[in-house]
Design a protein that fits this description.
507 residues, alpha/beta, Aldehyde Dehydrogenase, Chain A, domain 1, Aldehyde Dehydrogenase, Chain A, domain 2, 2 domains, 14 helices, binds 2-aminohexanedioic acid
């Protein structure tokens, strides 16, 4: 167990990050660190009145923020990026304390925030619309992109601050106001992020009050964002069950949603694969973040000719990987977020065993750890077929391995799950790689070659198909989800030709 006093360390970090002690000392909601299960904070939920007031204030802020030139809006995001750079160590460590990520992954999460700030700053000068050829003389047709309004951001515990940053940085340069409901499990990193953002606002000088709010709480707060007519876009990350509830409710009032839901990501290892590279890539993708990324590798299809060699090496990695205190150098797998995650993992493993699964690892590691902390050895489960729990996302480090002989069959099985987030193929055969990336190949939003499915850069669009929800966040042209498009036709002539040759002569 860690020698550090975690509640004290949390208070120290929060103070350095500019969070008022009262904000995490007196509330009714207990915040626990998965490292030991100890309480590290007590926060207060926002009540219905505070929630409604924050949304109204955000809407009022949007009405003036939308008039600020986009490159100037980019300046606010640049200042926020500066704060993140200056406090990367503290915020990264707080992520480790609140979520249990190993130190480099906690820091990596903050780096992802910095990266999206840089991206959004550049974007603030590139919110381009098209000019379109018109069929009418002396006319011009073009597209203009305008801010949407208030963007509600619902984030999950596993990327408690980076996914908010993807949404926030883009939404702000696009001229929107933002209201954030972080996961109930990670209010402290949200408070710290908000405090850093407040410093950026102070340096910026004249941003409207209420531009960026954080509302701690549970379902009530989420429902308020989902149902409020002034929340133009609800961007929600979490389970498919959550998305199924949110999507229709927002659609009911013709609001917009951007959903980033569950994944059941797979990799295919072909006969020509570089096995050294594959073992490293698969190990990180399956065991990294203790299997708690939405991009975590959960299914593996290995060609029979390399199955024994690859699985033998993977088993070694599973049996030797360093599990423990995420703050200790050398640890690669930290704790699960809580007991519910552990129970779900054990239930999936038990079900897999009844279907003929043979597991390496998977048991709880208790030696030297607190009773309320849930450390596990990641599980590699050899399955005879893709059935039962293999078809579901269990948010824990379980990798189901299966053999294949024909790539067409492997791709069919790869796509035969409800989710469609991320995917990869390990091969040195150009035909196999291109087939996997083609229309007949992976049906996911992300498809990689010789890289695992997790750990995407911010520059690409992030999200997936089917039950993953269809949304795209972060890079490429994802910004368009945060704006509304107007098509403008301008007649600079003295006649009025109608489109499609329609005649309407009033004489
Ligand atoms: C998530 O788990 O919700 O691609 C986001 C990745 C990270 C983001 C994951 N950059 O694994």
């Amino acid at each position: 167990m860690t020698a550090i006093d975690l509640p004290q360390e949390t208070a120290r970090l929060l103070a350095q990050l500019g969070v008022d002690k009262a904000a995490f000392s007196n509330g009714a909601r207990l915040v626990r660190t998965p490292i030991t299960g100890q309480t590290i904070g007590r926060v207060a939920d926002a009540d219905a009145r505070q929630t409604a007031a924050a949304i109204d204030a955000a809407h009022a802020a949007y009405l003036s923020w939308r008039l600020v030139p986009a490159p100037r809006r980019g300046e606010l995001v640049r200042l926020f990026g500066d704060e993140l750079r200056a406090h990367k160590a503290e915020l990264g460590r707080l992520v480790s304390l609140e979520v249990g990520k190993i130190a480099s992954e906690g820091l990596g999460e903050v780096q992802e925030m910095i990266d999206i700030c840089d991206f959004a700053l550049g974007l603030s000068r590139q919110l381009y619309g098209l000019t379109i050829a018109t069929e009418r003389a002396q006319h011009r047709m073009m597209e203009t992109w305008h801010p949407l309004g208030v963007v509600g951001i619902v984030s999950a515990f596993n990327f408690p601050v980076a996914v908010w940053a993807w949404n926030a940085a883009l939404a702000l340069v696009c001229g929107n106001a933002i209201v954030w409901k972080p996961s109930e499990k990670t209010p402290l990193t949200a408070l710290a992020t908000q405090a850093l953002f407040a410093r950026a606002l102070a340096k910026f000088g004249d941003a409207p009050a209420g531009l960026a709010a954080v509302l701690l709480g549970g379902r009530d707060v989420g429902h308020a964002l989902v149902d409020h007519a002034k929340v133009a876009l609800v961007s929600a990350t979490g389970s498919t069950a959550m998305g199924r509830a949110v999507g229709p409710r927002v659609a009911q009032r013709f609001g917009r949603v951007l959903l980033e839901l569950g994944g059941n990501n797979a990799a295919i290892v072909c006969p020509s694969a570089d096995l050294d590279l594959a073992v490293r890539g698969l190990a990180f993708a399956a065991m990294g973040t203790a299997g708690q990324r939405c991009t975590t590798l959960r299914r593996l299809f290995v060609h029979s000719s390399v199955y024994d060699a690859l699985i033998g090496r993977l088993k070694q990695a599973y049996l030797s990987v360093g599990i423990g205190d995420p703050l200790v150098p050398g640890t690669l797998v930290g704790p699960l977020i809580d007991k519910a995650a552990f129970d779900a993992m054990q239930a999936a493993l038990a079900q897999a065993a009844t279907l003929g699964g043979k597991a390496t690892g998977g048991a709880r590691v208790t030696d030297g750890f607190a009773a309320d902390a849930f450390y596990v050895r990641p599980a590699l489960v050899e399955m005879p077929d893709q059935t039962g729990p293999v078809l579901e996302e269990t948010f824990a480090p379980i990798l189901y391995a299966m053999r294949y002989d024909d790539l067409g069959d492997a791709i069919a099985k790869h796509n035969a799950v409800a989710q469609g987030l991320s995917s990869s193929i390990f091969t040195n055969d150009l035909r196999e790689a291109e087939l996997f990336l083609s229309a007949r190949g992976s049906d996911c939003g992300i498809a990689n070659v010789n890289i695992g499915p997790s750990g995407a850069e911010i520059g690409g669009a992030f999200g997936g198909e089917k039950e993953t929800g269809g949304g795209r966040e972060s890079g490429s042209d994802s910004w368009r989800a945060y704006m509304r498009r107007a098509t403008n036709t301008i007649n600079y002539g003295r006649t009025l030709p109608l489109a499609q040759g329609v005649k309407f002569d009033i004489g």
